[in-house]
């Protein structure tokens, strides 16, 4: 998952970025609202964290402009102002949630995960697909209850697929949501990680878990539930 973090307090920005990286997110940062607006328009994000008190373009105005451009990724606002009016302004501008400083980074990460899940239509932190269960809180994958070890990059790719089961995703989209701005879009890293996931999750291709659609991209197949109800006799 790729995040936009717009925070002018560089010490806080650095601290939050480290916690988000540790939680397996890719993070782009901006120091003021104008840079944040440019990045929000230019890149595909899964969520944004925006401080209210930004220079050049404040957080409320930034959110208003993003929403006016029909940019719909979830937005979490940060505010040092302990005033209900500021929270209401942010939510009315189009933010989805808020945190008042000071806060624990762990709470920020938990709220982000919930926002991203809800935007994908998932309420639970555990996403199931056939024999697979992905726990987005513990960052663990199981198949029929057995834990499967994934690298950080493999997990990022699979989590994005699991949040978008049945949807075709191009190599460019996958790259933009998993890697930072400087990543080489022409590299074959996505193909490498797709092969690794297939080998770990569906080595004999019995499930047809990850489909390749020539000229379009890849799709995670929606698999039948493990607990199918008995058919009436």
Features:
WalR-like, elongated, Sig_transdc_resp-reg_receiver, 233 residues
Describe this structure in words.
This protein has 233 residues and is an alpha/beta fold. α6 (152-163) packs across α8 (189-201). β3, α3 (59-68) and β4 (75-79) form a beta-alpha-beta unit. Mean pLDDT is 89; it is low at 228-233. The chain has two domains: 2-119, Rossmann fold; 126-220, Orthogonal Bundle (Arc Repressor Mutant, subunit A), CATH 1.10.10. The protein has helices at 10-22, 33-42, 59-68, 84-93, 105-119, 152-163, 171-178, 189-201; strands spanning 2-6, 26-30, 47-51, 75-79, 97-100, 126-129, 132-135, 140-143, 146-148, 168-169, 210-213, 217-220.
Q: How many helix segments?
A: 8
- Taken from the alpha-carbon principal axes, the silhouette is elongated
Spans of at least 5 consecutive residues with low confidence: 228-233
Could you say what the CATH topology of the largest domain is called? Rossmann fold
Q: What structural class do you assign from the helix and strand content? A: alpha/beta
Cα end-to-end separation:
46 Å
Strand order of the largest sheet: 2-1-3-4-5
CATH architecture of the largest domain: 3-Layer(aba) Sandwich
Under CATH at level 1, the class of the largest domain stands as Alpha Beta
Q: Give a quick account of the main beta sheet: strands, pairing sense, barrel closure.
A: 5 strands, parallel
Number of domains: 2
Strand runs, count:
12
* Arithmetic mean pLDDT: 89
The SSE order reads EHEHEHEHEHEEEEHEHHEE
Strand content: 15-25%
Helical proportion, percent range: 25-40%
DNA-binding region: 124-222
Domain OmpR/PhoB-type: 124-222
Protein name: DNA-binding response regulator
Domain Response regulatory: 2-116
């Amino acid at each position: 998952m790729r995040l936009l973090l717009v925070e002018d307090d560089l010490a806080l920005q650095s601290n939050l970025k480290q916690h988000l990286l540790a939680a397996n997110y890719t993070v782009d940062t901006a120091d003021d609202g104008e840079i944040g607006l440019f990045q929000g328009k230019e890149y595909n994000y899964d969520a944004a964290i925006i401080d209210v008190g930004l220079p050049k373009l404040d957080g409320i105005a930034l959110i208003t402009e993003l929403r006016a451009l029909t940019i719909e990724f979830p937005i979490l606002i940060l505010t040092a102002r302990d005033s209900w009016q500021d929270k209401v302004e942010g939510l009315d501008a189009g933010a989805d949630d808020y945190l008042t400083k000071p806060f624990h980074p762990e709470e920020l990460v938990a709220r982000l995960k919930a926002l991203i899940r809800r935007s994908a239509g998932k309420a639970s932190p555990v996403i199931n697909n056939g024999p697979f269960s992905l726990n987005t809180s513990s960052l663990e994958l199981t198949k029929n209850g057995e834990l499967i070890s994934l690298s950080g990059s493999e997990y990022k790719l699979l989590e994005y697929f699991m949040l978008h089961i049945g949807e075709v995703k191009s190599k460019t989209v996958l790259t933009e949501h998993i890697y930072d701005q400087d990543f080489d879009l022409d590299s074959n890293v996505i193909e490498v990680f797709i092969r690794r996931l297939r080998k770990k999750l569906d080595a004999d291709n019995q499930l047809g878990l990850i489909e390749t659609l020539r000229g379009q991209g890849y799709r995670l197949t929606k698999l039948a539930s493990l607990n199918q109800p008995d058919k009436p006799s």
